[in-house]
C-alpha cells in the first residue's frame, strides 16, 4: 500500500472514474450530551438536526462495513452516501444517540476501548449495553485497549518491542470484542487520530483498516491505513459548514510525498501529485492550523508542494486543502494532512 523511498513515504492513489460517482463521507462523533465539554459534544437537539438534514436531503446512510468493503471492491456509491461513527463508547451514546438513530433507521459504528469496559469505567457503556446496540444493528469496532497514543515508544523501547506491545494491544481488543459480540471487523480508529508510518505499516501487516480524524471525502482508492472522517461535534457541528463537508469530493491524487505524519520538523513539507485536477489551479488553497494559508509552490501543472509559512508548535496540526470542482457546481474537493509535531523523534 505504501513504500519507503529515501526515508520518504509515498502513498499511491489513483483517480476516481468520476468525481461525483465514487465519493462518500464518514462522520465522527464522541458525546451526545449538553452537559459535557462542547469540544467533543453535540446536544441531542443538534444531533437530531444533523440526522434530519441527512433525511431531508436524501443522503443514503449505510453501515461502515458496507462502505469500506464496497470501497475495497471499487464499488460506485451515490455521492450522497454517509457512514456515521462514534469514538470511545460513552454511555450517552445509548442514552441520547441510539434512540434518535433508531428513529431514523440509520446504522452506525461505535469504536470502543475494551480494557476500559472490562475495568467497568463509569463513563463507558458495558458489554451488555453494547450487545443491546449490536442486536439493534450497530457495529462495534476497535479503538485500542485503553486509548493510548499508539505511536508513542516507551523509554528505552526498541522498535521490535514497540511492535510487539501494540500488536498485543490490538489483538487483545479485537479478541474481547469478538468474545462479547461474536464478530471481528478489524477496523481500528486511531486514538486521538494520531498515527505514524510505522503504525500504518503494522496496521496493514495485521490486516486492519486504519481510520483517522483528519477530514475529507473517501473513495475506493484511498489508503486504507488512513481513511479520513469529518468531525461533527463542537465547533464542527454547525450545519452551515457541515453541509459543505457532506457534499465534498476527494481530490484525484496520484501520490502524496512527505517524511512522516509524526515529525520534529516545524514546517513539514507535503507534495501532492494529481492524477487529474478537475479544478482551476488559482482556486486551490491550503490552510494551516492556527496560521491561515499555507505556502504553495507549483512544481508542475499537476504537482504542488505545501509548507507552513511559520513554525508549528508541539502537538496536532493539519494542512487542509480545498478547491471548487469545475464539474460539480457548488461542491469542493477536500483533503486533510494530519501532523503531530514533537520535540523528540522517539515519542
From TrEMBL:
GO biological process: carbohydrate metabolic process
CDD domains on file: CE4_DAC_u4_5s (cd10973)
Localization per record: Secreted
Keywords recorded for this protein, A-Z: Signal
Signal peptide positions (record): 1-23
The organism's place on the tree of life at top rank: Bacteria
GO cellular component terms, A-Z: extracellular region
Keyword flag Signal: yes
Listed GO MF terms: hydrolase activity, acting on carbon-nitrogen (but not peptide) bonds
Domain NodB homology: from-to ranges: 80-282
Record SUPFAM superfamilies: Glycoside hydrolase/deacetylase
Record-linked Gene3D superfamilies: Glycoside hydrolase/deacetylase (3.20.20.370)
Xref: PANTHER family: POLY-BETA-1,6-N-ACETYL-D-GLUCOSAMINE N-DEACETYLASE, PTHR34216
Protein name (record): Polysaccharide deacetylase
Organism: Pseudoalteromonas ruthenica
